[in-house]
Amino acid sequence: AHLDRIDAVDGEVNAFLHVDRETVLAQARRVDERRAAGERLGPLAGVPVAHKDVFTTADMPTTAGSKILEGWRPPYDATVTARLREAGLVILGKTNMDEFAMGSSTENSAYGTTRNPWDLERVPGGSSGGSSAAVAAYEAPLSTGTDTGGSIRQPAAVTGIVGMKPTYGGSSRHGVIAFASSLDTPGPFARSVLDAALLHEAFSGHDPMDSTSVPEAVPPVVEAARHADVDGLRVGVVKEFSGEGYDPAVLARFNEAVELLESLGAKVVEVSCPNFSYALPAYYLIAPSECSSNLARFDAMRYGLRVGDDGERSAEEVMALTRAQGFGPEVKRRIMLGTYALSSGYYDAYYGKAQQVRTLIKRDFEAAFEQVDVLVSPTTPTTAFPIGERADDPIAMYLADLCTIPANLAGNAAISVPCGLADGLPAGLQIMAPVLGDDRVYRVGAAVER
Ligand code: GLN
Question: Where in the numbering of this chain does the Amidase domain appear (predicted)?
Fold first, then answer.
């Protein structure tokens, strides 16, 4: 049924980069065989999932939305991919994304923009916009994403679904094509909080293949999603995330969600996190710095595209030609920014300073969590914007992640749940908890999801 739905709508939505009916049906038959052989499979066995094209898959191409990886077949499955298979989920295909996960609209994909199912002239968010659109358009009940600065929560918010960024290190980066390694975090998309928790549980947990994987057990997220209860819970409204630049209709839905929490017995207070205002500029030094280093591996020798290898040109010339043709403009902008910020003489002024700001943001969270159990804010300042509106204005594009970035810099758990429509388009409520407080955001999310 999902394959038929993809056939019917994906010509317009463009959520998928790769779908192969035979590979999908073979996976489904394998689940039936395992069940027939008496294997006890988990609660999601046989359920289809759309998989972001940033995770390696041994039986499907993996491009990370870039021309430089066109046609590349990874030799191995990412840990998240392998765990989806172990749990018996059926991978429907690979979803579109901003190139190397850099963007907030999916317009930076080398393979065309994904469209928001609510309004095909608008963006589905990004960078995991193919995954959010696939679930919102009922092409898949579940999907995967990665969140480096908001790339799960922001697309979830603007397509009216649930998206969760686990605690950093709570889900494995092994086999995730790297953008910014100290921030990249795989997580789930679903149409309900409980579904997201089930998918979260299926692929998370310690992985010896990822050196930053946390050793602690996955918090009891499914149980939390089943016990929606906020009575007596202390909720902090982040004071800094309102006012200028925020769509009044989005703020109205946010305030209603806060009133709902209060009516369910939560104690709501306003909390100030003064350094959150510096999170965006700090992120746009740290993430490009890490990206400039990570993307050095695309050297025309190891993977994918190779341009101008005529036996005459040097390796350096072939590498330069390949990178010039293989990377899109946003990726090049970030490599240049990052290389500059890391260069000797500028390192302390830019990268070093940004890391200090990162520490201050962590301290803001620590101080806040002495007073409250969770923090809430709108997930995004506005609803889905029209395709093309911000494509030539990087700063306007970057503002889409204003509210989501602090949780990435500090490594905290954070979720976005739908909180109604603002002028006919979905708005999201963000719930943030301390590191390893993943269960808490599911509990609160389940209480208020609409
Ligand atoms: N939009 C942010 C960026 O462009 C976040 C991307 C992400 O989380 N992968 O970097």
Answer: 1-441
